[in-house]
Amino acid sequence: MKLAMIGFGQAGGKIVDRFLDYDDRTDSGIVRAAIAVNSAKADLMGLERIPQDNRVLIGQARVKGHGVGADNELGAEIAEEDIDEVQNAIDSIPTHEVDAFLIVAGMGGGTGSGGAPVLAKHLKRIYTIPVYGLGVLPGTDEGGIYTLNAARSFQTFVREVDNLLVFDNDSWRQTGESVEGGYDQINEEIVRRFGILFGAGEVTGGQDVAESVVDSSEIINTLSGGGVSTVGFASEGVELNSGGGLLSRFTTDDRSGDDLDAANTTNRITSLVRKAALGRLTLPCEIEGTERALLVLSGPSEYLNRKGIERGRKWLEEETGSMEVRGGDFPRGEPEVAAAILLSGVTNVPRIKRLQQVAIEAQDNIDDIQSESQDNLEELVEDDEDELEPLF
Ligand code: GDP
């Protein structure tokens, strides 16, 4: 599936940058165009792969290239004011060759948090192709204002896109990591998961043709109907045979037990599907009640079979209770078999409910502190007996 990716804000830009890198490394061909939008000049300059001409600085008149400092209302305002500049960059990409837009943003900050929903609304008015969002939730340790920003952005972003794919930084942070090092790993996880999913519909020449191909219309159908999506993933290393065929029976290393008979292949696939659905999701949630799902099995073609995918699909139908579970394979020359599962239209998400609670508390606290500090300042400035007069 070919996407026009727009990274809004710092996290958004960095993740789209990383998608370009992934595209190069894996030859997956999913990024047809990449644009970065930011109100902070330094963040745009820090990007590596997005072409210079596709980096759009907005809000110069208001914030002079210095960013909005986690003020997402200001982020939304400047996005509205400078939407024509973003549109100019989009005008330069061949949108007729694109299957969908993907707007990527961290929802806890300012520029992306406020600007991404504004851009989604704008694009939906103009184009007929779907507009998806990839929204990143902040870690719970980032503090009240980030949580409040994310909760408000989430509400708005879901409403404006055709589907919001969510990635929760909190589920993926690792203790003892520097923030930057941590983000590096997290961003790699993001591009790998979404890369396999979106790459499935984009089999290029030279790759084996899949037995039951996932094409972009199946991804679009799974995402249609809107709402919130999460992605599960599991993989297992396998041996690549340089000849491209089955491993030789005479292989004598210790993996020779890993013979490729059909039963093994099927079992490997079904257990990967279970691990992917029951393991760590990009947004943790209860999978029961999921409206639609798509299962993509990737790996060397000799490790994929229709029976395994069918079994995995059936199991997913039972677990989710959904009647709309699509599935297919995605042959790739990587030495691993991987199951990526898109769960679309999830509604039982305790993480979002907690985020909203903390956001409301933060909002109340901010209001209290603001009114208190007004009183405290007056008490400080005014003399007790009111004997002094200000100059004017
Ligand atoms: P903006 O530039 O004002 O849109 O704000 P940022 O994108 O810098 O930050 C918004 C939120 O995104 C932060 O609160 C973090 O949770 C998250 N974030 C920042 N950088 C990254 C990154 O590289 N990767 C990921 N996954 N999240 C990030």
TrEMBL record:
The keyword Phosphoprotein does not apply. One of its GO terms (molecular function) is GTPase activity. Its main location: cytoplasm. Keywords: Cell cycle, Cell division, Cell shape, Cytoplasm, GTP-binding, Nucleotide-binding. It comes from the Archaea. The keyword Zinc-finger does not apply. Residues 366-392 are annotated as: Disordered. GTP binds at residues 10-14, 110-112, 142, 169, 187. Residues 2-205 form the Tubulin/FtsZ GTPase domain. Pfam families: CetZ_C (PF21011), Tubulin (PF00091). GO terms for biological process: cell division; microtubule-based process; regulation of cell shape. GO terms for cellular component: cell division site; cytoplasm; microtubule. Involved in cell shape control. PANTHER family: CELL DIVISION PROTEIN FTSZ-RELATED (PTHR30314), TUBULIN-LIKE PROTEIN CETZ (PTHR30314:SF10). Belongs to the CetZ family. This is Tubulin-like protein CetZ. It comes from Natrarchaeobius halalkaliphilus. The lineage of its organism: Archaea, Methanobacteriati, Methanobacteriota, Stenosarchaea group, Halobacteria.
